Amino acid sequence: MLNTGTPDTSTLGKGTITRERIAAVEPRIRPYVRHTPVMRVDMADFGRPAFPVDLKLECLQHSGSFKARGAFTNLLERQVPEAGVVAASGGNHGAAVAYAAMKLGHKATIFVPEVSPPAKLERIRGYGAELVVGGARYAEALAASEDFAARTGALQIHAFNQEETLIGQGTLGLEIEADLPRMDTLLVAVGGGGLIGGIAAWFAGRIRIVAIEPEGAPTLYRAFEAGKPVDAPAEGIAADSLAPKRVGEMMFPIAEAFVERSILVSDDDIVAAQKALWDRARIIAEPGGAAAFAAVLSGRYAPAPGERVAVLVCGSNANPANFWP
Fold it and tell me: CA dihedral defined by 104, 101, 172, 55, rounded to 10 degrees?
């Protein structure tokens, strides 16, 4: 879906999620996060017409996803009480918060829904956090985490609708620009929108940013249609990482201003992308992590001649043995 709205962008630069704050946070979290690599691939190797695509492999980040950036930003920029931190997550945010808490010496309690895959639960447990599994979807885990925070005084770290989370994810935009200064277009998967919101705040319209979402969880697509965040379905193969009820209120004005459009991909597209990344490039990507590449592989995003395209592969908490029946 094309973003045809005409938002008032005059106040965006005056807000709290700015290039200046992202640049200031980056050196604070740098000792704790990896500068992840870029791999250039030729789409001819994937059975598509020949053209180069740069893959930013944030799937190689600590805890298996980009979310370590937002987690460390929260723990370093906010006061952590004795009760520690609490987070609700489909898996990746919880793993990132658990990892950051472990590295910085804080207690962590993570609430996850029943759809969370075993690989993500094992990561959270492995980082020493207390894990609570319950509820069918992310919204129920979030409600339980909010109740826990109210009862214990633990610091709640929201997966996407939190200032520090957006700023931390924005450091990935800074890093991508350093890696690929001549990039024209960046494809980014969307769930709650913390990742694309932070990245879009960094670039602030200087490149084309395209959102990629599963057909079963079109949160930003529906928000663009309505002109505001609204509830959307929360289904499909990527439901554990890309299926909150709606995008965050904090990121939506940024997306209206700086995200060109949202493209939907099917579950079959995502599975094909996972398989292709593993088979042709030996890259392990979970469904949400492979969604952006699925848009290129399926042809749902077709680059113009000479367009310099980058794709963010943002999560790797999957077992490649599960890619095939």
Answer: 120
Handedness of CA 245, 251, 256, 261 (dihedral sign): negative
With H, G, I as helix, E, B as strand and everything else as coil, classify residue 34.
Answer: coil
Residue appearing with tokens 């929360």:
234
Say if CB 281 and CB 253 are below 8 A apart. Answer: no
CB 143 within 8 A of CB 72: no
Q: Are 292 and 189 in contact (CB under 8 A)?
A: yes
Q: Which residues pair with 110 in a beta bridge?
A: 87, 131
- Is the predicted pLDDT of residue 275 greater than 60, yes or no? yes
Is pTM beyond 0.90? Reply is yes
Most confident stretch, 29-33, 158-162, 318-322: 29-33
- Tokens representing 325 are 């029946």
Establish how many alpha carbons lie within 13 A of residue 20's alpha carbon, considering only the half-sphere containing its beta carbon.
Answer: 5
Cα 54 from Cα 50, distance rounded (Å) = 13
d(CA 89, CA 139): 9
What is residue 35's predicted lDDT score, i.e. its pLDDT?
98
Cα–Cα distance list, 33 to 61, 62, 68, 112, 260 (Å): 7, 7, 7, 24, 29
Q: Tell me: the pLDDT tens digits for 67-118?
A: 999 999 999 999 999 999 999 988 899 999 999 999 999 999 999 988 888 8
Q: Which H or E element spans position 133?
A: strand 130-133
Cα–Cα dist 120/310, whole Å: 26
Least confident of 2-11, 16-25, 45-54, 283-292: 2-11
CB atoms within 10 A of CB 102: 16
Q: In this structure, how many other beta carbons lie within 10 angstroms of the beta carbon of residue 45?
A: 12
